[in-house]
Design goal:
Elements (H helix, E strand, L loop, with lengths): L4 E8 L5 E9 L6 E3 L5 E4 L6 E2 L2 E2 L1 E4 L4 E4 L5 E6 L13 E3 L5 E3 L1
Parallel strand pairs: 7-9
Antiparallel strand pairs: 1-2, 3-4, 4-8, 5-6, 8-9, 10-11
């Protein structure tokens, strides 16, 4: 539960050619990924430095731990759990609704 590491997100085209790679420091290894209608990627999992690829991203208060990446892999924002470690509120499911709202449980 106290493990720290780097989470990598990699895209590839249908032929397997590498697209973008994004990384951020994590405190856990649980994650879910979803993509919204604008091709932004939303990932669950604690982003301990509130950064993507070493660049700071806006922190929003939230009861869930999420990081949003734009279609090019750049960080848009991240949320931090209101839970107390080692029991963070990391979502086990993640979906985007028709209006673009995120739903996590």
């Amino acid at each position: 539960m106290n493990a720290r590491g780097t989470k990598l997100f990699v895209t590839a085209d249908p032929s397997g050619n590498l697209g973008w790679v994004s990384r951020f420091r994590i405190r856990d290894f649980q994650h879910r990924i979803t993509v919204d209608a604008a091709d932004n990627v939303v990932v669950t999992g604690a982003n301990v430095e509130a950064s993507v690829n070493g660049l700071a991203v806006t922190i929003n208060p939230s009861p869930a731990a999420l990081t949003k990446l734009d279609p090019n892999g750049r960080g848009l924002w991240c949320t931090h759990t209101n839970g107390v470690w080692p029991y963070p509120a990391v979502p086990y499911s993640l979906a985007v609704g028709p209006g673009g709202d995120l739903y996590a449980a």
